[in-house]
UniProtKB/TrEMBL annotation, chains A, B:
Residues 162-235 form the HTH crp-type domain. This is Transcriptional regulator FNR. Keywords: DNA-binding, Transcription, Transcription regulation. The keyword Transcription applies. Residues 28-111 form the Cyclic nucleotide-binding domain. SMART domains: cNMP (SM00100), HTH_CRP (SM00419). It holds the Pfam family cNMP_binding. The keyword Transcription applies. Gene3D superfamilies: Jelly Rolls, Winged helix-like DNA-binding domain superfamily/Winged helix DNA-binding domain.
Length: 253, 253
DNA sequence: GGTCTTTTCTGACGCAGATCAATAATTATC
DNA sequence: GATAATTATTGATCTGCGTCAGAAAAGACC
């Protein structure tokens, strides 16, 4: 299946797709000219869906593309020298996966689907080339990477300084923010990851995650039904996380 | 003091400076043409030294430059909503500080000198512009940012999964690697940060850092004299960190 | 050189969260 | 839809590391 074929087949929906997908972060904020949007669209390859548990790429494989999540969720993780999995991130629709592979030309993590997931593949060499011709695209790329760096640093603060309650609250509010940003409900959503995966990510035991969630439920901070989460008391949750008056900046995981 | 003046004053030493400083990471691996090196040099401003405790920039200030450390050490940190300092990184000579400011056009962290420190200021707009003209420079920039992302993710693993011994061992070996990479001794170096700062960074109490270091000393893994550290038993230290056969990749903090 | 301040070290103690264990609830498989 | 496998919950116990406290050492400042 050639790229142009792929492109033409999806062409009619591309513009609307890009509105709230991968490229919203990459191009929309900078109002690319129509012509530029087209050029960007042309290098993007829509891939067939990944089923739950399938790999998008594996740690150690040659890096050649970054991927934008269109629907579903991915986790990235690496395997420590003791053979345990360490999750380094969850990726929701519109987010870019794989940026950490640029440096070594090899993915330093594996990426796996947590549910049925579709992605757009963006061959990095093409993207880089195109970014030379479209300065605002290049700038957006720098911004996306810079944002990732500061988000990861917030995550380091979380892991280093926060207790179990604060970690879980931060995690839930962070997800809430990410859903909200792309037009979904901020208060009510479904966790695509297991309690075990949350614990792994937050540096907590499964049992602790489960206990904290139960406790939050009992204190009427949230309402839980399996993987369905409803955040009931935002102010109290934010107090837990330590959000000052400026809610925006701090709660990024 | 104009930029060109600054430039001409230091001109004779520039090439050799760049060999093992900031730009080694940025340009040397890609063998820029002489002409390109010159163009890069021209946008770089050597700043006068910072004394211990002075700020390079503060959280919230407008972002306009990234900085390459020439000598000395910096720490970056942010102030949590509870008023405590959280250190997010230490920066040794040749490393770039400030990349996390690109996204929001504001530094999300403060940077402070741990000792007398000199830096090269690289106005980001100039760098970005120049990177359009020199593709290999742009690629290096992407690489540096990508590397930062994967390093930070290793740090997340450390904070989330490792115990006190493993954290301190990782920290020391990471410093060792960084010194080695720029031609200093890998086994013997001076810590420019206090035990408190190490603990803050690693998510440990000062007392714990002190105890671990004492214990390492007693077990003949390292030799300590105040801030002077000598790593005596590399194999055993690496075993602690969980380095497999491939030492290179894992021990980046 | 002497005083003051900060940093480092060491011990005693307590607690948050890990681990172990067993049951209950979901989800996957045929 | 029955059975197996995975995931979630809950309780009991244990422990690594934080906290508190005090002394020693190292720097800073006049």
């Amino acid at each position: 299946m050639s790229m142009t074929h792929t492109h033409s087949r999806f062409n009619s929906t591309l513009t609307s797709q890009c509105q709230n997908c991968s490229l919203s972060a990459l191009c929309l904020p900078i109002a690319l000219a129509d012509e530029d949007i087209n050029r960007l669209d042309q290098i993007i390859e829509r891939k067939k869906p990944l089923k739950k548990g399938e790999f998008l790429f594996r740690q150690g494989e040659a890096f050649d593309s970054v991927y934008a999540v269109r629907s579903g969720t991915l986790k990235t993780f690496n395997i420590t020298s003791f053979g345990e999995e360490q999750i380094t991130g969850f990726y929701c629709p519109s987010e870019l996966v794989g940026l950490s592979g640029i440096d070594s030309n090899t993915y330093p993590v594996s990426a796996k689907a947590l549910e049925t997931t579709t992605v757009c593949e963006i061959p990095f060499s093409h993207l880089e080339e195109l970014s030379s011709q479209i300065p605002s695209l290049k700038h957006q790329l720098f911004k996306v990477m810079s944002r990732k760096i500061s988000d990861d640093q917030q995550m380091m603060v979380l892991l280093g300084k926060k207790n179990a309650d604060e970690k879980v609250a931060s995690f839930l509010l962070n997800l809430s923010n990410r859903f909200k940003k792309r037009g979904y409900s901020a208060s009510s959503f479904r966790l695509s990851m297991s309690r075990g995966e949350i614990g792994n990510y937050l540096g907590l035991a499964v049992e602790t995650v489960s206990r904290v969630i139960t406790r939050f439920q009992k204190s009427e901070l949230i309402h839980v039904d399996g993987k369905e989460i409803e955040i009931v008391d935002f102010p109290e949750m934010q107090k837990l996380v330590g959000v000052a008056s400026d809610c925006g900046k701090i709660s990024h995981i």
